[in-house]
Amino acid sequence: MKKYKGNKKYDDVCKLMNDKGMQVDTTEFDKGGDFVNFKGVWHILPLTIVFNTFNGQFTVFNGITGKRLANHLSTDLDGEKWYSDLMDTLYETLDTNYYQDKISV
User: Fold this and answer.
1) Domain count of the fold of the chain
2) Residue 94 in 3-state DSSP?
3) Which residues of the chain have pLDDT under 70?
4) Rounded to whole angstroms, how far apart are CA atoms 86 and 80?
5) Can you give the pTM of this predicted structure?
6) CB 87 within 8 Å of CB 95
């Protein structure tokens, strides 16, 4: 399982999501809220992703039915390409080799 050290900066996440074809809806964030919504097709899946810019938590919904599909704690989806790509887009990867080197010194 890949480890992460925290969420990426708001502007970076929005740019990455936009570059990957997702519509970025900052309406609530622009009103002073902590949430931004990403809507569109993600790895052929129609999704709506609600991302908390303050704490990095997210929830993924089916973009058609509205059914909740996943969140930031969905470890059962770790091997799924779409979920791994989402995690890599929203979060900074933790370099576990850095810590391994420090432990073995």
Assistant:
1) 1
2) coil
3) 1, 96-105
4) 10
5) 0.86
6) no
CA 103, CA 105: separation in Å to the nearest integer? 6
**Domain extent at residue 56:** 4-103
State residue 87's pLDDT score: 95
pLDDT in tens, 54-72: 999 999 999 999 999 999 9
Instruction: Supply the DSSP string of 54-81, one letter for each residue.
Output: TT--EEEEETTT--EEEETT-GGGTT-H
Distances (CA, A) of 87 to 32, 44, 56, 68, 97: 25, 17, 10, 17, 19
- What residue has token string 């052929």? 44
Token reading at 102: 């420090």
Q: Are strands 58-62 and 45-52 parallel, antiparallel or unpaired?
A: antiparallel
